[in-house]
């Protein structure tokens, strides 16, 4: 097989595939190299197998990065509308589930098939090399040489699309960071994001028996807040609102939970003291909370006989806790459970137009390897498409 190409792309995930098809449609001959035995493995498992492939409400404010302007260019050059148009061209049925999140009606396999079909659309070519273990990357005389356990390839351009270390059992690695450092780029400390939070032992005593209970709540950290479901787990808290806020939480910090969004819990409890004086706390809380949670609160932090016997001060304290429960997580469930990795290749070393490194012409970083992380809900795939397309235009 010919080992000389116009570009080598490392990583055949969402960003790598998008970059490859874009370059091939501009007439380039690219090699797409991955150590996995199949392309797009995270696409296949995403969205419960239906791939939440983009979000109608994609705006730059819904991404985290040390440079909050960096991702604007790529997101505006290749938009959610552009990706949706491709999905529609391939007649893939989809629907909006909630909050602008677009999912395939049937299977995520349709998205992978679409990307592979686009790779074959020419006039250039995509030479896909799977199950290739990369053993070395060298750069000399304006050429990159990638050595693998199955031979070597060379090209004047190298695109790194190997993602971040989330879900290592799927083959995720920190390869991009090691390579970036070797070429003199800096890394914004990577950390698990969109990840369940774990509880300290005292909170866990309350939470563990509630495992499986979910409710509509607001999770807030600093000025950022998300109203969606939270879910009690045997290790702490999960659910969409918790996954979202986990990306903003820093170790040692606290998050605030409003378990009764839109309801003034103190006013509610004082009202019930007057209107249902003989009722117990559990019975009153069950009116507005899942009954297992009401029971646990009545057995634990909010004990009391009849409402009439509860001093107003105690009801105010309970109401305050329900609307502003301060939760100090012990940590997160780590990369094993993190949907994405926040942090990554420092955007100061990259062109926001093309994703090419400023100091090493021909070297590009795209997708999750870069310090740009989206909210839950299709934003991370949109970043993979937009950054992959931007680099593909420059190859
Ligand atoms: P991605 O991880 O997709 O691809 C990297 C590729 O590089 C892989 O093929 C890997 O095998 C390869 N690779 C890694 N190290 C290598 C090495 N050393 N040598 C060779 N190859 C190497 N997002 C979203 O928007 N909507 C959703 O529904 C979901 N759902 C979801 C579910 C789950 C369970 C997870 C874990 C993640 C999601 N995501 C998501 C996030 C989304 O999957 C993620 O943001 C993108 O896949 C990132 O695309 P990349 O191409 O950058 O990396």
List the helices and strands and how they pair.
Elements: E1 7-10, H1 14-25, E2 29-33, H2 41-45, E3 52-55, E4 63-64, H3 72-77, H4 80-89, E5 94-96, E6 101-104, H5 109-119, E7 125-129, E8 134-140, E9 143-148, E10 151-155, E11 158-160, H6 175-182, E12 187-193, E13 197-198, H7 201-207, E14 214-221, E15 224-232, E16 236-238, H8 240-246, E17 255-258, H9 265-275, H10 281-286, H11 291-299, H12 312-323, E18 325-327, E19 331-332, E20 340-345, E21 363-365, E22 373-374, H13 379-394
Parallel strand pairs: 1-2, 1-11, 2-7, 11-21
Antiparallel strand pairs: 3-6, 4-22, 5-6, 8-9, 9-10, 12-20, 13-16, 13-19, 14-15, 14-17, 15-16, 17-18
Helix pairs in contact: 1-5, 1-13, 9-12
Bound molecules: dihydroflavine-adenine dinucleotide (FDA).
How would you briefly describe this protein structure?
This protein is 30% helix and 25% strand.
Q: Can you give a write-up of this model?
A:
The chain has 395 residues and is of the alpha+beta class. The chain has 2 domains: 7-190 and 342-394, FAD/NAD(P)-binding domain (3-Layer(bba) Sandwich); 197-332, Elongation Factor Tu (Ef-tu), domain 3. 30% of the residues lie in helices and 25% in strands. It has helices at residues 14-25, 41-45, 72-77, 80-89, 109-119, 175-182, 201-207, 240-246, 265-275, 281-286, 291-299, 312-323, 379-394, and strands at 7-10, 29-33, 52-55, 63-64, 94-96, 101-104, 125-129, 134-140, 143-148, 151-155, 158-160, 187-193, 197-198, 214-221, 224-232, 236-238, 255-258, 325-327, 331-332, 340-345, 363-365, 373-374. A hairpin with a 2-residue loop joins strand 14 (214-221) and strand 15. Helix 1 (14-25) packs parallel to helix 5 (109-119) and helix 1 runs parallel beside helix 13. The model has no long low-confidence stretch (mean pLDDT 96). Bound molecules: dihydroflavine-adenine dinucleotide (FDA). The site of dihydroflavine-adenine dinucleotide has 36 residues, from helix 1, helix 2 and helix 13. Keywords: FAD, Flavoprotein. Residues 191-340 form the RsdA/BaiN/AoA(So)-like insert domain. InterPro entries: BaiN-like, BaiN-like_dom_sf, FAD/NAD-bd_sf, RsdA/BaiN/AoA(So)-like_dom, RsdA/BaiN/AoA(So)_Rossmann. This is NAD(FAD)-utilizing dehydrogenase.
């Amino acid at each position: 097989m010919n080992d000389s190409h116009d570009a080598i792309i490392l990583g055949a995930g969402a960003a790598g595939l998008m970059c490859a098809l874009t370059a091939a449609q501009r007439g380039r001959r690219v090699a797409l190299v991955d150590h996995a035995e199949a392309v797009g493995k995270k696409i296949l498992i995403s969205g419960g197998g239906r791939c939440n492939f983009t979000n109608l409400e994609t705006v730059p404010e819904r991404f985290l990065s040390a440079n909050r302007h960096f991702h604007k260019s790529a997101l505006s050059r290749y938009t959610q509308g552009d990706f949706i148009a491709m999905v529609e061209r391939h007649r893939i049925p989809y629907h909006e589930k909630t909050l602008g999140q677009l999912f395939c009606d049937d299977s995520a396999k349709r998205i992978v098939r679409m990307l592979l079909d686009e790779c074959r659309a020419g006039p250039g070519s995509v030479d896909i090399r799977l199950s290739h273990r990369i053993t070395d990357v060298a750069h000399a005389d304006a050429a990159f040489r990638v050595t693998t356990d199955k031979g070597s390839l060379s090209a004047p351009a190298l695109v790194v699309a190997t993602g971040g270390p989330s879900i290592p059992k799927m083959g995720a690695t920190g390869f991009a960071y090691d390579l970036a450092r070797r070429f003199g780029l800096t890394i914004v400390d990577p950390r698990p994001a969109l990840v369940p939070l774990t509880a300290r032992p005292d909170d866990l005593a309350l939470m563990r028996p509630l495992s499986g209970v979910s409710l509509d709540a607001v999770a807030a950290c600093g000025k950022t807040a998300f109203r969606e479901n939270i879910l009690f787990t045997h290790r702490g808290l999960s659910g969409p609102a918790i996954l979202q806020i986990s990306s903003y939480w820093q170790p040692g910090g606290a998050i605030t939970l409003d378990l009764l969004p839109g309801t003034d819990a103190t006013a509610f409890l004082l009202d019930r003291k007057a209107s249902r004086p003989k009722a117990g706390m559990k019975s009153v809380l069950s009116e507005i909370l899942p009954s297992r949670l009401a029971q646990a609160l009545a057995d634990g932090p909010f004990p009391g006989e009849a409402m009439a016997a509860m001093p107003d001060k105690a009801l105010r304290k309970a109401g305050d806790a329900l609307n502003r429960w301060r939760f100090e997580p012990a940590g997160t469930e780590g990369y094993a459970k993190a949907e994405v990795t926040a942090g990554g290749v420092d955007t100061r070393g990259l062109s926001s137009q093309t994703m090419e490194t400023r100091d090493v012409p021909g070297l590009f970083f795209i997708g999750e390897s870069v310090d740009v992380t989206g909210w839950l809900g299709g934003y991370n795939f949109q970043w993979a498409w937009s950054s992959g397309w931007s680099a593909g235009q420059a190859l």
